[in-house]
Amino acid sequence: MTDGVDVNPIVLQRADPCVLRHDGQYYFTGSHPLYDRIVLRRAERLEDLQAAEEVTIWTRHASGPQSHLIWAPEIHRVGDAWYVYYAAAPDDHGTVDVPGTAETFNHRVYVLENTADDPFTGEWVERGQVDTGWESFALDATSTVIDGQQYLVWAQQAFDVRGHSNLYIAPMANPWTLAGPAVELTRPEFDWETKGFWVNEGPSVLVRGGRVFLTYSGAATGIDYAMGVLTAELGSDLLDPASWTKSETPVFVSDPAAGQYGPGHNSFTELADGTPVLVYHARTYTEIVGDPLWDPNRHARAQVLPFDADGNPVWGTPVPDTRPTPTSTEVLSPAGEPQ
Questions:
Q1: Where, by residue number, does the polypeptide cross the bilayer (predicted)?
Q2: How far apart are CA 222 and CA 202, in angstroms?
Q3: Cis link prior to 9 (omega < 30° from 0)?
Q4: Which residue has the higher pLDDT, 159 or 290?
Q5: Residue 33: how many other CB atoms lie within 10 Å
């Protein structure tokens, strides 16, 4: 076994992976390389997700604000319903909204809801855009419920802050409406976060051992892409930036010895016994042919996340592949076979 997962990658050519364990099943979604749909698959074991049937639960609009670049869907169970948070744009090019600020895309955060017990049945209803308080590049929303309060954490550009995106948190009145103003938790400031692009994005939350761990990714999406972490005490005011401690150095980085480059945009799931599992994407090469945006080979991977005697995560390093992966010029068919 490889750190509690028999086979890696767990899903080929699906970046920004999100895995949710519910009622003995693993539910998986991630960015489709065509950026035109939201997909869902499930299996009883993480290593069986690649072979699992993939169902398209939503397709981009023909025009309008949800017609291009569908990015980073996440599936969550809140109350008795399923929710998918995702980013969508009206076009596939960036804009400069304020002179002197970085060029960004035009994404906003949106929500789908399904009230059926089985998310593969029932109807996925569009609940619309999440009003974050201002209009700018926004993406990578994740949700967590702590002590009965639902929070949204996401990445968004602020025009008075250098760079493409910072991380914000806000309480929620319901799964598609904020109950209070956005609070900035972190912005790109350290050298590792500002390589290529000034980025804090891809947040994910893990609650364990009386602490709240908020991971995120920084830098451009090549070899420099890496993960950082903020930590708060469970029971503290999570809407107070002073409650959070930010690591100055990345906690999960490329490992040439393992053939893994640009690990990041993670999520967390667990084994049947509750052992935490780190899910993330990475590539197996550094030379990308063409525009990196359209390189399809960021594969979803998973490995057990150990903790030390003091309750600190032992992040380790990305594990080597045990499943064959495509080359930089090879594209998989929708069925997961080279074409």
A1: none
A2: 15
A3: yes
A4: 159
A5: 17
What are the strands of the beta sheet with 37-43, ordered from one edge? 15-22, 25-31, 37-43, 55-59
Among 50-64, 122-136, 272-286, 317-331, name the one with the lowest average pLDDT: 317-331
Query: Measured on CA atoms in the order 312, 29, 284, 204, is the torsion positive or negative?
Result: negative
Categorize the per-residue pLDDT at 120 as very low, low, confident or very high, splitting at 50, 70 and 90.
Answer: very high
Where do we find the tokens 């109950």? 179
Which pair of structure tokens corresponds to residue 69?
A: 């670049």
Is 201 catalytic? The answer is yes
Q: Which of 54, 113, 193, 201 is catalytic?
A: 201
Which stretches does DSSP call E strand in the chain?
15-22, 25-31, 37-43, 55-59, 68-78, 81-89, 108-114, 125-129, 138-146, 149-156, 166-174, 177-178, 183-186, 200-208, 211-218, 226-233, 245-246, 261-270, 276-283, 299-304
The residue from 16, 74, 113, 224 that is catalytic is 16
Q: Spell out a b/e string for 228-244, using b for 16 or more CB atoms within 10 Å of the CB, else e.
A: bbbbbeeeeebbeeebb
Query: What DSSP character marks residue 296?
Result: -
Residue corresponding to tokens 């063409």: 290
Instruction: Report in angstroms the alpha-carbon separations of 6 from 76, 279, 301, 302, 304.
Output: 25, 14, 11, 10, 11
**Under 8 Å CB-to-CB from 260, ≥6 apart: which residues?**
254, 282, 283, 284, 301, 317, 318, 319, 320, 321
Distance, CA of 56 to chain centre: 19
Percent above pLDDT 70 for the chain: 93
Cα separations in angstroms, 167 against 140, 190, 293 = 10, 15, 22
